Amino acid sequence: MVYLTSWDEFVERSVQLFRADPESTRYVMKYRHCDGKLVLKVTDNKECLKFKTDQAQEAKKMEKLNNIFFALMARGPEVDIAEVTGKEQTEAQPSKKGRGRKQ
Asked: How far is it, in rounded angstroms, from Cα 74 to Cα 31?
């Protein structure tokens, strides 16, 4: 069992682990409110990767990781995750024109 300290390394290795064996790879998240800790775990019964945090800002990153895994599971392990990481969400949002005070 390996606790990774870098978020980027955890995401990269987790995606590699899923792509290597999508049938047996599992993704689990556990939150303990009394400790205020979030633990994410990805395993394929041979290798186990874990990431632990107590920072609230990591919640947005966890949401992006969920989207990555949803895409990998729904579209297949060959999907390009660059389109899932949130770049298209910022482009798809409408601009906020005309919200100011009219003169």
From this structure: 25
Query: In sequence order, which residues have a C-beta less than 8 Å from that of residue 21 and are 6 or more positions away?
Result: 44
Element (H, E) at 89: helix 87-92
Mean pLDDT, 10 residues at a time, over the chain (103 residues)?
A: 88 92 92 89 93 85 88 84 61 58 67
Angle between the 58-75 and 7-20 helix axes, to the nearest 10 degrees? 10
DSSP state of 99: -
- Burial string for 42-71 (b: 16+ CB within 10 Å, else e) reads bbbeeeebbbebeeeebeebbebbeebbeb
